[in-house]
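Before relying on records like the one below, remember that each one covers exactly one chain. Contacts with other chains, cofactors or solvent are not represented anywhere in the record.
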Amino acid sequence: MKKISFIFILFILLSACKAKKVVTKKSASKPRIVTTKRPTKRKGTAIYSNTITTANVQKIINKAVSFKGTKYKYGGTSKRGMDCSGLMFVAFKNGNINLPRTALEQSKKGKKITTKKIKKGDLVFFKTNRKKRINHVGLVVSHKNGNVKFVHTSSSRGVMISSLKDGYWANAYVMARRITKAKKTTTAIINNPKTYTVKKGDTFYAIARKFTGISAQDIMKINHLSASDLKPGMVLEIP
C-alpha cells in the first residue's frame, strides 16, 4: 500500500514539473501604408490669358522697343514721329491685336490688375501735367524685384524706357491693365463705311480716330496721299 502511495505521489510531481510547450502565434504584421502626394500640376509658360501667348507678347514688346529714339509727334505712328498711344497701337497691331487710338480709350480695354501682379506686356496708364483724366500710356517690358520698366513716348525725349520708381512717373501713375486678344469685329464707330468724305477742319489723325483699328498712316497709304494733300470734299477709302 505504501508502495502504491509513493508511486502515485511521484507521478503527480513529475506531471507538475513537465514544461509545457507554449505556442505563440505571431501576429501578422500590418502592411505599411505609404501615402504619396499627387504631383502638383505646373502651370504652363503662358502668363497671359489663353488668348495671348508669351511669344506674342514678346513680339509686341520687340516692336515697341524698335522705335526707341523716335521723336515725339502728336498723332504719329511711324519712325518719323510717334505719340504714346500710337506706339501701343502699332506694337499691338504687330501681335494681331487692334487697340483704340487714344490712351483714354486704351485704358478701358482688358482687365485691371494690381501693381504687384504687373507682367511683361501689360499697359500702365498715367495722368500727366495735372490732367483730370488719363492721357499717357506705356508698355511694360520687365518687372524685376518690384521695379517696373516700361517703353513709352515722352513728349520731350521721344520713345524711351522709364521706370515706375522714377519720381515723376510714380506720382502720375494711375493703374495697369492686361490686354486680351479682342474678338474679331467689323463694327466701327461710324458703322465701318468703305469711304469717308472729308469735312472742313478734318485731319488724317482726326479721321482715323473715328474708326477702330485704323491709323492715319493706314488711310494715307491706301489713298496714296500725304498729310498736305487732304482737302474738304475728298472721298477717302477706309482700309
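The first strand starts at residue 77 and ends at 78.
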